[in-house]
Every structure is written in C-alpha cells, then in structure tokens.
Specification:
The chain is α+β, with helices and mostly antiparallel strands. The chain has nine helices and 14 strands. The strands form three sheets. Strands 3-4-5-9-8-7-6 form a seven-stranded mixed sheet, sandwiched between helices. A five-stranded antiparallel sheet has the order 13-12-11-10-14. It has a two-stranded antiparallel ribbon with strand order 1-2.
Length: 326
C-alpha cells in the first residue's frame, strides 16, 4: 500500500485527503496514518494539513523498495522489485531467484554489493549510497544463439535511460559499455542457464556510476560518473525506472524480429566512434579499419583499408579507438 500511496501523491502533486486514501485503498484512517509515519521514517517529506490531507514535498529524494515500486510504470520489466541494502552480487541473487521460480521481469536491486563482478571475473567496485546496481531476470523462448544480443538491447536501454534522466549524450561503446564524454559510466554482465537448445533464464546485470567517487588508478583515465558529468546529483531510482521502460520496448521489438533489425537505426545512432577509425584487437592479428555500425545479429562491421568489410563478433575480439578508450 505504501508504494501505491507514494504513486498517488506524486501524481497528484497537491494535497490528497485522508478520506480519499481510505476509500481508494480500502483501509482505515489509522492504517493511512501508520503508512505515512513509516514513509516519513524512510526519508520522505510528507506534509500533513488538517482538512486538506497529505502532500509529498517535491524535493523528496529516497532510494529504496517503495520509491522504485511507486515509480515503476512498466507492464512487466522491473516487476516485481526486490530491493536490498546489501548483497554479495545482484547477479548471484537473481540466479538463485530464477532457479526458485522468480518470474520474467523480476528486478534485483542493491544499494551496495560486497562481491560485484564484471566481465572475465573482474571485481566491480560497489560502494553504498553512490551507484546503481541491478539485475533483470528474463525467461525467453528464443534460441540460445540469440541470447548474446540481449546485452546490446540492454546497452541501448541504459543509454536511453541516462539520456532521459540526466540530459547527457550517453553513447554506446560497442558492444554494450556506456560512455559519456568519452569515459565509461556503465558496465554489464549477462549470465544464463541453458539445457541443450533451451534457455532456462538469462540474468542481465548492470552497474552504473552515478555519484561522485574516486576511481582506482588503473581506470581513473577512462571512467566517469553521471553526477560529475552532469554537474549536480542524479536520482538513482529515476534512472532505473527509465532504463526499464526503454528496455521493455526494445526487448519486445527484438523478440518480435528474432534479431536486432528493428533497433539498428537507434543503436547505430548512439554508437560511439561510428564512421571513425578503430583498432580491432583480434587474436589472429590486430588491424585497423572504419567502424560502420552493427548488423542485425549485433556484429560490428569494420571496413578495412582494401574496402573489405569484416563482421566482428564481440566474444572473440576487442575494439578500441585509435587515440583512446573510445
């Protein structure tokens, strides 16, 4: 009920009478009063005026279960929300929940992680009160071969969510790193459970650098946070909700088409370094070429000096700009 009360107060922007809340949610005035008291303890600034009712102060900013639930206006992505103050890893929790029957769209969110992981087993710094860490559970009915493209769909959604929330020109460094002003602000890790050609589940983990922070020396030149790039604080809950809204729409297009054809224009329009020179770090031999965007299966098309176009698969090689990370 608390999440529903928050959603109504936020929608109305003016005072809502206690009587209306009682009738809307079928509870007593005492229950409403208790709910308001609990929300205040969570950090919400709720004004109560006799004969007028309750109003949520506009500057209220809280990060937690009820804040996310009250804002999540998607149909299935991000529903339900499972919020934790602390987790070892949102991906690990999501896999456990998926094994135990959690439905598609379940979103695991943590304020901090004690065992966050990136690609190739790298650790992912996950301090509290600073960043966004979440994992979305998917239970697709498409073939295993298509699963790798889900990370590109999420990359597109995260870039869209950051743009919508912050007004920053977030771009995608192929295949799914998100960069702002040439520096990485987001990483992703997808994991799945399969049996022959059947996918039991896919868990799509995302970590977004939001608050100001000191990065380790080895990544200080290539990493950034949204608050620093924007110049003022960024609401973490709003980012998650906007990412879920974008992902829901993009993922449905992907599932409908069975590939990325319906998302090519949007993805390539956000692709960092498109039509610029890149280095392809292929185990078979490094070479240079011009990035021409992705194809419908998510491979990066690189035009070599002789005019031949190579379709580069993300699992095999790495791509860098000539003069830096992007």
């Amino acid at each position: 009920m608390k999440s529903k009360i928050l959603a109504l107060l936020r929608e109305r922007e003016d005072y809502v009478s206690g009587q209306e809340l009682c009738e809307r949610f079928g509870v007593s005035r005492t229950a409403v009063w208790k709910a308001m008291g609990q929300l205040k303890k969570e950090g919400y600034r709720i004004e109560a005026v006799q004969n007028r009712g309750y109003r949520l102060a506009a500057e209220t900013s809280v990060y937690g279960q009820h804040e996310l639930e009250s804002r999540m206006d998607t149909r299935w992505a991000g529903k339900p929300v499972c919020f934790y103050e602390e987790l070892g890893s949102t991906n690990l929790q999501a896999k456990l929940d998926a094994e135990n029957g959690a439905k598609e769209g379940t979103l695991i969110v943590a304020d901090m992680q004690t065992a966050g992981r990136g690609r190739r087993g790298r650790s992912w710094s996950s301090p509290p009160g600073t960043n966004v860490y979440f994992t979305l559970i998917l239970k697709p009915d498409f073939s295993v071969e298509l699963a790798s493209m889900v990370t590109l769909v999420m990359g597109l959604a995260v870039a869209e969510g950051i743009r919508e929330t912050c007004g920053l020109e977030a771009r995608i460094k192929w295949p799914n790193d998100i960069v702002v002003n040439g520096k990485k602000v987001c990483g992703m890790l997808a994991e799945m459970s399969t049996e022959r050609e059947f996918i039991h589940y896919v868990v799509m983990g995302v970590g977004i650098n939001v608050g100001r922070q000191d990065f380790p020396t080895e990544i200080a030149q290539t990493a950034a946070c949204l608050e620093q790039e924007r110049g003022y604080p960024v609401p973490r809950a709003e980012i998650i909700v906007n990412v879920m809204k974008a992902f829901e729409g993009y993922y449905e297009i992907f599932c409908r088409d069975g590939n990325l054809a319906g998302l090519l224009e949007r993805y390539n329009g956000m692709l960092a370094g498109k039509d610029g020179e890149v280095r392809v770090l292929d185990p078979k031999g490094e070479y240079r070429g011009i990035s021409r965007g992705i194809n419908s299966t998510g491979e990066l098309l690189v035009e070599r000096e002789d005019g031949a176009v190579e379709a580069v698969y993300a699992g095999e090689v790495s791509v860098r700009g000539i003069y830096g990370y992007v």
